[in-house]
Design a protein that fits this description.
The chain is built from 1 helix and 11 strands, in the order αβββββββββββ. By secondary structure, the protein is α+β, with helices and mostly antiparallel strands. The longest helix is centred in the N-terminal third of the chain and has 21 residues.
Length: 134
């Protein structure tokens, strides 16, 4: 009897945990920098990568590539607080971003879902990012 109650309690706890994390499970961003050996390395951003809205980085980061999945679109900024006039543009690595019929060879401020956004090399360090929920 006690084993059944314990099993039921554990099952309820596991289901509650899965339910609480499922809303953000599909939303993530990643940023990569280029190291001295010209290899892309992931930048540690913390837990805010799964939450829509504006987020400041603790310290500015020189970002090479931006990845986002699960959001309608994201933008990156060279100032804290996602200041509009500090938005950074990016290019789609292969040229055409077919899902939204975007010419990725032209600078884009709204970065739609995908893994091949190359940040404009003239940009200063990234200080914040904003992602719009779907």
């Amino acid at each position: 009897m006690i084993q059944r109650k314990l099993a039921a309690l554990l099952l309820c706890g596991a289901l509650a945990f899965l339910w609480s994390t499922s809303a953000s499970a599909g939303q993530k961003i990643r940023m990569y920098k280029m190291n001295s050996k010209l290899q892309q390395t992931k930048i540690t951003l913390g837990g805010a990568v799964e939450k829509a809205g504006c987020h400041d980085l603790l310290w500015g980061k020189r970002v090479y590539r931006f990845v986002q999945v699960g959001y309608a679109w994201c933008s990156v900024y060279t100032q804290d607080g996602c200041v509009a006039d500090s938005v950074v543009t990016a290019y789609w690595q292969d040229g055409d971003y077919r899902k939204y019929n975007i010419d990725g060879t032209k600078p884009q401020a709204k970065l739609f879902p995908g893994t091949k956004w190359i940040i404009d090399s003239a940009a200063d360090d990234i200080q914040s990012w904003y992602c719009e929920a779907k």
